[in-house]
Structure formats: C-alpha cells, structure tokens
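Morning run. Coffee first, then this:
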Amino acid sequence: MPIKFYEKFILNVLNKGAIPKHIAFIMDGNRRYAVTHGKRKVEGHGVGFQSLKKTLEWCMELGVKEVSIFAFSIDNFQREKEEVDVLMELARDKLKEISENNEFLQKNSVKTSIVGNLDLLPEDVRETMELVMKRTEKNNKLQMNICFSYDFTYEIERAIALYQKEKEGKERTKQDEIEETRISREIMNKYMLIKSEPDILVRTSNEIRFSNFMLSQCSSSIVCFLKENWPEMSILSMLKIILKYQMQEKSLKQLRTHLDEYERKEIAEAAKKKQATAST
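And here it is:
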C-alpha cells in the first residue's frame, strides 16, 4: 500500500529533525484489538501483520536503518493450541509470500534476520525462515530483526555459552583475566543475537513492561509506551514516537557517552587490581 499524501507530509516534517537509526517494537494488543472489534482473537494477528508492513514503510521513508520486532515469545507456546498454530501458519505463509520477487521485502530491499530459539519451531516454519533470510541476505535499505521463539533469558544464556566455548582450550591472557572480572558491553555484544542498541523502544497496547525483550540492548534506550493496540498503529503513532525521540535525543547521546566513559574506567580499574594482585 503506497504512503498517503498526508502521511508523507508528516514524515517530511519529522525528517527535519533527528531520526533514530534503530527502533525496537514490542507489538502488543492484537488479541485485544480483535475482541474490541468483535473478531476471533486469532484474526487480530492477521491485522497486526498488515500494521507491521505499514510501520516498516514509514520507517524506511524516515531513513531508519534498523527495526527489531518482538513477534513471538518463548512463553507464547503456552497459549491455546489453536492460536499457536495460527501464528505458526501466519509466520510461514506471510514471510514466504513477502520475500518472493517483486514482493514487499525484495521491492523495499529489506534484509531480514529471524532470531531466537528456532529449534522449538515446527520444521516447515524453520525451513521457511531460513529461506527468507537467504532470499534477503543481499538487501541493504533496512535491516529487520524478527525476534521469534525468543526471550532475553535465552539470548543471554546463549551468549555466555558461546563466550565460554570460545575461551575453552585457549591459553589464558591478561585480557582474559580482566574480562572474567568485568565483561564489557562491546565484548558481550559480539555474542548477542542482536548486536546494536535501539535508540528507542516502543510498546503498544498501554502495557508498561519490557516482557524479557532485549534487556541488555535497550538498557539505555528511550522508551515510548503507546495506548493504541498494535493493529491500530497510525501515522499519528509514528509522530508521537519520533517526536519523543527528538525531544530526548541529546540526553540519550549524553547518557551513552557517560556509560562508555564509566565502562572504560571500570575496565581500567579491574586491570590495575589484577596487576596489583599478581605482583604481590
């Protein structure tokens, strides 16, 4: 669906100010939307998918470079079987459809990474996701990270396991000893599923919680909670998101600068303590 004239006007005005490079979305409220509109709960997810495409179009028009979305939590496997089955079918069919030639992902050059514990998914869904990632690997206008069968507990446990595995069997260096005392964000990010920090985290449906989503990456992000359900995302929702970012952008940069300085001092202090202990 092409961007409407009034939407383009609003986006052009927003583009006069600072634009986030990376936006993360917790897409909440599909089921609430369905209930309030007299639909079956499972139907809300289909409407939510259309809302995602629309939101991605606005992001690309603004020049956003990366979007991360929380599509399906590991906890969501505990929902009713009918709903889980519908979500699996939707993921399989819609992702395959929009990744084909001349369809949404290819037409807009969206590179798609799907991250999470994909081993928990049905084989046909997993194979489709691998196909989508392969089809879009050379696209370069927007990086879209779909967190599916994901939570941060899984991500951090995986990262620590990878870090430990890489160190096994290697000769220990002074840097290794320092890292054991204080692992930097830069080192930890190397092992995370999503490596960059969102500039702003958005959650819809008037829920004020993070739901175990990208807790490390979003530790210094601006946070925007919206009242509207995800299928109700409009250009005015995007206006609120970007205006909030523009009002707090300088504070965000200052905070991240201070965090980087603090981390460097902490690592330097850890190194001094190690050297002092070794010399005694």
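The longest helix spans residues 235-279. Good start to the day.
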